[in-house]
Design goal:
456 residues; mainly beta; Methylamine Dehydrogenase, Chain H; 4-stranded antiparallel β-sheet; 30 strands; 3% helix; globular
């Protein structure tokens, strides 16, 4: 990928001040395949004015997987965090993402099971719960999204929840098997003004066979334009690799996460989604890709962030012995459905090892300055061990302008942020929700302020 910056980023006046760093809740693993951060493309953290809200999941004692969890809603005001409410009656599998409006409305996406059997999966009925951020203790209004037809929703929703906080509109995507995602759009008047289906890209455009399910997408809703970027998530399509993996693991299945796809529509109420474009691929060496974030700039340029691992080392000796391993944080810009630039921001290569980047997220300030925050681990080229969060500011063309370490007591190894994609306003402060190093069963929160020392 052209334009690699490696580990060397220009230094400039930037300080990061930690304002809050605290644990929010602990949980018992549900062992159902979906942890508290499983909806990674959405967010379980939203800021509305002076208040910040977080959703969590609680494992129900004695309930059996898969639907053995219930949602929780927390709020943080001047007195700190408090538990506002829990799901009073339902059971679900996955975490429940949040979105908010500048007007004060707060929404939680739930997917309660319809199955009376506590063991296994079964049908589900998506719903959205609306709270008032000014008085969340007053309870919620249950909203029933309107879909095209009667989709067969299940506990594996893979749903994506996004909002245009300024304009007071939201969109919900929810997967149906391996064929498509159902979507529904709620406008500023509270009407479900549009709905439809997003069909997955074909595994081969020539044969048009076996659609490639796209999961864990970053979704943005901006003045009714919708942008969608996710990763392939299908059973290993290469028969030789699938057989080899079966010998290694004893499992009949193994999933592919190695092609990054993007699509968009300029107006969800008027225009269909465009042709899928492939942003990145590690198909040749059975690598791995994870979506990071998506931001739509005022000029409609779409900024994308993702991490890549070059190859599956278990397969290298037999299938691609000369390939080299690498771990990278990558960035691209898309305009009018076309990739106009690509850049590697941070990379650790097998013959040039360095810090390994992961969990990249964008952070946008009120002046539309674009920052990247990520987790850095491994070792510096000097041999020094590293485990910390870092930030870097990008120019309009993707050059790194400045960078700094986030001086947390314990870094976040995986996390959500209070993102504009969930309706949170741009801010000078970065807010984290997720796992910190050494706390695999605790969800924590932090707020850090960027002090740049200039007025640009």
């Amino acid at each position: 990928m052209a334009g690699g910056l490696g580990q060397t980023a220009p230094s400039a006046a930037v300080q990061v001040k930690v304002e809050v760093e605290e644990d929010l809740y602990s949980y018992t693993p549900a062992n159902n395949g979906a942890g508290p951060l499983w909806c990674s493309g959405s967010s379980c953290l939203v800021r509305i004015g002076e208040n910040v809200f977080a959703s969590g999941i609680e494992t129900i004692p004695d309930a059996k997987p898969l639907n053995n969890c219930r949602w929780m809603l927390f709020g943080r005001g001047p007195a700190g965090w408090k538990l506002i409410t829990k799901d009073p009656s339902g059971r679900t599998r996955e975490p429940c993402p949040l979105v908010g409006f500048y007007s004060g409305a707060l929404f939680l996406s739930a997917n309660p099971t319809l199955s009376p059997n506590e063991s296994g999966g079964g049908p589900a009925e998506p719903e959205i719960l609306e709270f008032s951020s000014a008085n969340p203790d007053a309870g919620f209004q249950r909203l029933a999204p309107k879909w095209e037809g009667t989709p067969a929703f299940t506990e594996h929703s893979y749903r994506s929840f996004a909002a245009d906080g300024k304009n007071g509109e939201l969109i919900l995507f929810q997967n149906i098997g391996y064929t498509h995602a159902e979507w529904t759009f709620r406008d500023r008047n509270g009407a479900w003004a549009a709905r439809g289906r997003l069909a997955w890209p074909p595994i081969s455009e020539k044969t048009n066979l076996k659609p490639i399910r796209v999961c864990y997408p970053d979704v943005a809703l901006d003045n009714r334009a919708v942008y969608f970027c996710g990763v392939s998530d299908i059973i290993e399509p290469n028969p030789e690799w699938r057989a080899f993996k079966r010998q290694l693991t004893g499992q009949e299945w193994d999933y592919d996460f190695r092609r990054l796809f993007f699509t968009w529509t300029p107006d969800i109420t008027r225009a269909a989604f465009g042709k899928w474009i492939e942003i990145a691929s590690r198909e040749e060496t059975c690598g791995w890709i994870s979506p990071g974030d998506l931001w739509v700039a005022p000029d409609r340029t779409v900024h994308l962030l993702w991490t890549e691992r070059a190859l599956d080392e278990r397969l290298r000796p037999k299938f691609f012995p000369d390939a080299k391993q690498s771990h990278a944080l990558n960035y691209a810009q898309v305009r009018q459905g076309k990739v106009v630039s690509r850049r590697t921001l941070v990379i650790s290569e097998e013959d040039r090892p360095g810090v390994v980047p992961s969990v990249g997220r964008f952070h946008v300030t009120p002046a539309n300055r674009l920052w990247v925050v990520y987790y850095a681990s491994g070792r510096e080229t000097t041999g020094e061990a590293v485990s910390e969060n870092r930030v870097m500011e990008l120019s309009l063309d993707g050059e790194v302008l400045r960078s700094a370490t986030v001086p947390l007591k314990r870094p976040f190894t995986s996390f959500f942020t209070a993102t504009p994609r969930a309706g949170s306003p741009p801010s000078e402060s970065i807010e984290f929700l997720g796992h910190r190093a050494g706390s695999s069963s605790t969800i924590s929160y932090a707020k850090v302020r960027l002090l740049t020392g200039d007025t640009r």
